[in-house]
Amino acid sequence: xxxxxxxxxxxxxxxxxxxxxxxxxxxxxxxxxxxxxxxxxxxxxxxxxxxxxxxxxxxxxxxxxxxxxxxxxxxxxxxxxxxxxxxxxxxxxxxxxxxxxx
Length: 102
Description:
Blueprint: E1 20-24, E2 26-29, E3 32-33, E4 38-42, H1 53-63, E5 78-82, E6 85-89, H2 91-94
Antiparallel strand pairs: 1-4, 2-3, 2-5, 5-6
């Protein structure tokens, strides 16, 4: 337990067919709800975030990540609202930054 960064959160499964899924109440950008309710799947072998095209496109527009990373310092926290909490993902966790850009 001393190695955990936070308490373990438990959620009821909304589906067990294929991947384990839980209900996602919304997605937030700097804690502002985006109206993107859905279900999310957990796959410990996946290192990317994925979703339905309309959700991904809406988030890309709202996050507005510059391809040259010129707005890196101002990128917002991306949050997933599950049950009674928002779990934030910081910019270095949702954007790959390299010498070529973002």
